[in-house]
Each structure stands twice: as C-alpha cells, then as structure tokens.
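thought: fold this chain, then report.
action: predict
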Amino acid sequence: MNGAPRGGAGRPAALPGERCPPRFAIRDVGQETVEVMIMAIVRWDPFGEALRMQRDMDRIFARLGQAEARDDDIAWMPKVDVKRTGDDLVVRAELPGMKAEDVDIELTEGVLTIKGVRTSEEHKEGEGWLIRESSYGAFERSLTIPEGVDPSGITASFSDGILEVHVPKALEAARPKTTRIEIGNAGTQ
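observation:
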C-alpha cells in the first residue's frame, strides 16, 4: 500500500472523532449494476463535540466584539476564575500588561462588574508586526453575587497582571435562611 494512510480510493483516513464522508462502490450483481454506499463507523466523542462547539462559540463572539473595536484594536475578554475559600468568594482576572488604574470594579444591584481598556503599544517608525496574537481594547466582565453581601467588605488587589477581588461571606449570604415559627393556641384570647 506504499505507506499511504488507509482510507481507500486515495482518501485519507479519518482522525479520531472525525466523520468520514460516505463512499460509493459499484458492484455487478448478475444482470444489474448496484450502487452501494459505504460509510465508516466512527466512535462518538461527546467531550470532543463540546470542545468544538465551545471553540466555535468563542469564534462567533470574538467576531461580534471586533465590530465594536476601535482602530486596529481587537476586542478581547480577560480570563476569569472564581474560587471558594470557606464562605468567601475570590474572583481572579488575568489582565496582562495592565495597571490597577486601567481597571474599574463596581457592584450594582448584586452584579459585580470588572471593566477597563487594554491599550496597544504605539507604532514606531520602521517597525511592523510579523505575528500579532495579543488582543487589545475595552472589556467588561460581570458576575452575579448572592444577595445580602455587604459591599463595604469587598476588597481588591492587583499584582503582576492578576486582579483579585475578595467577596467575604458570599456563600453564607447565599444559604437559605430558615426561621422557625412557633404555633400558638388559636382558641385562647
């Protein structure tokens, strides 16, 4: 088979998780010619499908954001992690190349919003990008926090391009409160 990948009729074999296009074969059966469709059986990978769908959605939303971008800036969305520490929530945002004064944090009606603008380097005479994968422009990320959180207790720190917002007692505020009601005698006055 001269070392070519298996797929028949000069077609490459499918990679794991890919679907093969149907192939047709012509066979003579007695006096009739029959066209038979041959299909490859491929194992379905639900996690691969979910990852492909996520990449497609990221591409769609990235294109939507580019329409709002100014000049040659490309809209971007910083990565955000939220972790639990006891009853507290810690929100971490990756903001490389930014300073604390470039970022605003607000709490409005239970919605924590982190927003800012990441500016690109100034273009210098005699320089030009060969490859440019960094994204710049305005961003805004919003997260709903539980009702009952005291806004005055929320703190933030910024170090080495990482913003960390500490929301104390957020999970405690999210727990359902149960109040026991005593039953009194309805017949006594």
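thought: worth noting. The first helix runs from residue 46 to 68.
final: tokens above.
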